[in-house]
Specification:
Elements (H helix, E strand, L loop, with lengths): L3 H15 L4 H13 L8 H13 L4 E5 L5 H7 L7 E6 L2 H13 L6 E5 L2 H4 L7 E6 L6 H11 E10 L15 H15 L3 E10 L2 E10 L1
Parallel strand pairs: 1-2, 1-4, 2-3, 4-5
Antiparallel strand pairs: 5-7, 6-7
Helix pairs in contact: 3-4, 7-8
Length: about 220
């Protein structure tokens, strides 16, 4: 059976072929490391997947919950047409300022709206429809984020939710692990929702063992 080192090597091979980072993305990673941002952004290959999914549905308006340094937002923003819009929500004012600089350097500043503060306070004020919603924030609130995403997504729109496998912890979430419990509750709600057809892509590689939920609103 392949080990983690093999999974990571294959990830790096795939990224080298299909998801090479340009100067703006490389610079973002360098700045993030220098300024001590947590290393929890998507990988280059995962970013390319987000980009392709947004392109495939012709997304013109994207909502992201969990901006961090703007890495996934750049991949998503680059899938938009010139008149498209990325709305991204970030709890931390410091991370939002970092991301704003990242978007400007990538040439996406004019297409990006960053809302700071708790996402559950900002989401009710948003007006849809959005073509794609990407969840990549605190997993304990994923069930509540899902309720807002269902309200905001257009029919045929995509919901993507990262980190929903939690190294397998969703199989039997420990009582003291709110992230695993939130992910498990989100998956149960997604599976039961009549307006969504869904699947989870289990992923291994540079980012360890986790998974991405992919759902289409009917």
């Amino acid at each position: 059976m392949p080990d983690n080192q093999t999974f990571e090597a294959v990830d790096q091979f795939i990224d080298g072929l299909f998801a090479s980072e340009d100067a703006a993305l490389r610079r973002l990673r360098q700045r993030a490391a220098a300024e001590g941002l947590p290393h929890i952004e998507v990988s280059a290959g995962q970013g390319k997947l987000l980009y392709l999914l947004a392109k495939l549905i012709g997304a013109r308006r994207i909502l992201e919950i969990g901006t961090l340094g703007g890495y996934s937002g750049i991949w998503l923003g680059r899938a938009l047409p010139p008149e498209g819009e990325l709305v991204t929500l970030e709890l931390s004012e410091a991370y939002a300022a970092f991301a704003r600089a990242s978007f400007n350097e990538a040439g996406l500043g004019g297409q990006t709206v960053i809302l700071t503060g708790p996402a559950l306070q900002n989401l009710p004020s948003l007006i849809g429809p959005f073509d794609l919603v990407f969840l990549d924030a605190n997993k304990d609130d994923y069930p509540a984020y899902f309720a807002e995403a269902a309200r905001l997504l257009r029919p045929g729109g995509l919901l993507l939710a990262d980190n929903v496998v939690r190294k397998g912890a969703v199989l039997d979430p420990p009582a003291d692990d709110p992230m695993a419990n939130g992910a498990a509750q989100f998956l149960a709600a997604l599976a039961a929702h009549p307006e969504f057809e869904s699947i989870v892509l289990q992923q291994v590689g540079i980012k360890g063992h986790d998974g991405l939920a992919l759902a289409r609103r009917r």
